[in-house]
Amino acid sequence: MTLNDYASRVNRRLNEIPTVVAQDRFQIGEMPWLLNRSMRYSLEAGGKRLRPSMLLAAVDMLGGDAEDALDFACAVEMIHTYSLIHDDLPGMDDDTLRRGRPTNHVVFGVGQAILAGDGLLNGAFETMLNHACAHPERAARYLAAIREIATGAGVTGMIGGQVMDLHCERSGIADDHALTYIQYGKTACMFIYPLRAAAMLSGANEEDLKALTDYGRAFGLLFQATDDLLDVTGTQADMGKTLGKDAQSGKLTCVSAYGLEGTRRRVAQLHSEALAALERFGDRAAFFRELVDAMVDRTK
What we know:
With about 300 residues, the protein is an all-alpha fold.
């Protein structure tokens, strides 16, 4: 299957996940229509569905049931979308463009955007737990997968990385250790831990789990390095967001730390590390090899 095939499955399931939405006069137990509209505005704004697709592809590679993993993949996309809504807020990156559209807070206001992000984060865990409760015979695997996703999104993962990103931007800290911590946390963790969740859902062994962890780390850091490059060399039309803001705000990035050529060397090294992590999977890892190859030359 291709990335587009997996993305289509994720999109279909995102539209099927049940939510009771009030149409006018809301009742207890119903979601306010405004909350649903603001959440859906960002969730349906496009994007490659990269992280959930990687989870499903890993389940397929490991011989698991990708259909059974769909709710976990959707939860990962909901968490990713919440993080984008909050990342664009005035108190964080203060951006007005995301995926080629006005950011959530521009359309709905800052307060509603915060709540839309909160709704997506909580909705992600409701989705996973509802699936687990419906299949108690597989609860142990489901709970292990939920734990991995929570860790990736949590205080030692994405949130921790975002905290230090803001702190270093405002305090002027600019060392290699800080950069690695930030980019591992805010970006790589949401590749690493969904892949680890896929391993839990598939009953994978420790060797497979380590290989996926190593791949997720290299891929995530490579993804962020290319993103840093594109903030300087890309176009707003391709990227669908405001470019050049990293340099303007004094953000610690690969480009600010290593320069353009140093960042390109980092990309090449991480590409090699990602491919090496896949060796144990042989031909089964074709999707992941093609993905990391494409990431090196991406333009958006």
